[in-house]
């Protein structure tokens, strides 16, 4: 058994449809989906704002790499193209594997560049922490601490203030 937190984001085309596409591709492994947030671009300011959400997923058979493969399958289904010139540039769909827990409920720790766990930039991203906190107010990012504490860091204050809930855009009916 493994559980995973996945972050989904889109800032090109029909953004909500791309997020919905991810929920559809992940299918029965989806347990809960957060609300949708409009968020300022992180890491590369010259691009449109994103829609972001977080998915809690579970699958008895999934290995950590299976979650990465599923993330890539979601991106491919939504026509994601990589621009090698822009590491954090615009995209139809970005799906990141934030954390994975094994069958005993222990967090998987990995420093493989192909799959680093927890995701190496999750602690810096309000667009990951905020929707995850909404679903799990007591959650801890392994190796970093409680989400509520991470979100109150001064470095995240501007992004926290600039992100806005979009209750008009729901993914929950798909979960
Ligand atoms: N936890 C992880 N989740 C997703 N991809 C990861 C993870 N750890 C390592 N990777 C690797 O990162 C590579 C680049 O992924 P991607 O193109 O989605 O990066 P990015 O979205 O531009 O940046 P970021 O990973 O910071 O969101 C992937 O091919 C994947 O193998
Ligand atoms: N707000 C926001 N910014 C980003 C996002 C994202 O999903 N949301 N994904 C990125 C990919 O690395 C880069 N920047």
Structural class: alpha+beta
CATH superfamily: 7,8-Dihydro-6-hydroxymethylpterin-pyrophosphokinase HPPK
The biggest sheet amounts to:
6 strands, antiparallel
Share of β-strand residues: 25-35%
Helical percentage: 25-40%
The general outline is globular
What small molecules are bound in this structure?
adenosine-5'-triphosphate, 2-amino-6-hydroxymethyl-7,8-dihydro-3H-pteridin-4-one
CATH second-level architecture: 2-Layer Sandwich
Output the helix-strand order. Answer: EHEEEHEEEHEEHHE
- Give the helix tally: 5
Q: How many domain modules?
A: 1
The separation of the N and C termini measures: 19 Å
CATH topology descriptor: Alpha-Beta Plaits
Mean pLDDT: 96
Total strand segments: 10
**Which residues sit in consecutive blocks of at least 5 with pLDDT less than 50?**
none
GO molecular function: 2-amino-4-hydroxy-6-hydroxymethyldihydropteridine diphosphokinase activity; ATP binding; kinase activity
EC number: 2.7.6.3
Pathway: Cofactor biosynthesis; tetrahydrofolate biosynthesis; 2-amino-4-hydroxy-6-hydroxymethyl-7,8-dihydropteridine diphosphate from 7,8-dihydroneopterin triphosphate: step 4/4
Domain 7,8-dihydro-6-hydroxymethylpterin-pyrophosphokinase: 87-98
């Amino acid at each position: 058994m493994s559980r995973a937190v996945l972050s989904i984001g889109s800032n090109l085309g029909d953004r909500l449809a791309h997020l919905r596409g991810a929920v559809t591709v992940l299918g029965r492994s989806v347990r809960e989906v957060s609300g949708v947030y409009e968020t300022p671009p992180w890491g590369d300011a010259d691009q449109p704002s994103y829609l972001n959400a977080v998915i809690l997923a579970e699958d008895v058979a999934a290995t950590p790499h299976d979650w990465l493969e599923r993330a890539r399958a979601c991106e491919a289904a939504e026509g994601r193209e990589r621009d090698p010139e822009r590491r954090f540039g615009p995209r139809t769909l970005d799906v990141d594997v934030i954390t994975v827990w094994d069958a005993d409920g222990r967090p998987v720790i990995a420093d493989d560049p192909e799959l680093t766990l927890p995701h190496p930039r999750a602690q810096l991203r309000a667009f990951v922490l905020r929707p995850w906190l909404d679903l799990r107010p007591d959650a801890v990012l392994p190796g970093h601490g409680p989400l509520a504490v991470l979100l109150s860091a001064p470095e995240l204050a501007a992004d926290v203030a600039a992100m806005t809930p979009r209750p008009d855009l729901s993914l929950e009916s798909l979960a």
